[in-house]
Amino acid sequence: MPLTMAQSGVQSIIHEIHGRDETKRFLESLGFVIGGNVTVVSEIGGNMIVNVKDTRIAISKSMANRIMVA
To answer: What digits encode the pLDDT tens for the residues 35-51?
Structure first.
């Protein structure tokens, strides 16, 4: 399921990242790597604040939809 469907406060594992190569590289540089853990902290107006590698990051809903978690 996409990251936008994940519940707040529940840790998920990243299984896949969709998008063009530059999009994947950008997300990897932020810490979104396959097999990594991600936790949704909050959702504000569709945009999300997530916790990745002990860092809080704000990402847009369109970017969050490209990150598949379980």
So the answer is: 999 999 999 988 999 99
Residue 31: exposed, middle, or buried by beta-carbon count in 10 A (0-12, 13-18, 19+)? middle
- Six-digit token string for 19: 């998008």
CB atoms within 10 A of CB 49: 15
What is the model's pTM?
0.90
Q: Using CA atoms, how far apart are residues 19 and 56, in angstroms rounded to an integer? A: 22
To the nearest whole percent, how much of the chain has pLDDT over 90?
A: 96
For residue 23, the surrounding DSSP H or E stretch is helix 21-30
Q: Which residue is associated with the tokens 């970017």?
A: 63
What is the separation of C-alpha 25 from the centre of its chain, rounded to a whole number of angstroms? 13
How many Å apart are CA 66 and CA 30, to the nearest integer? 14
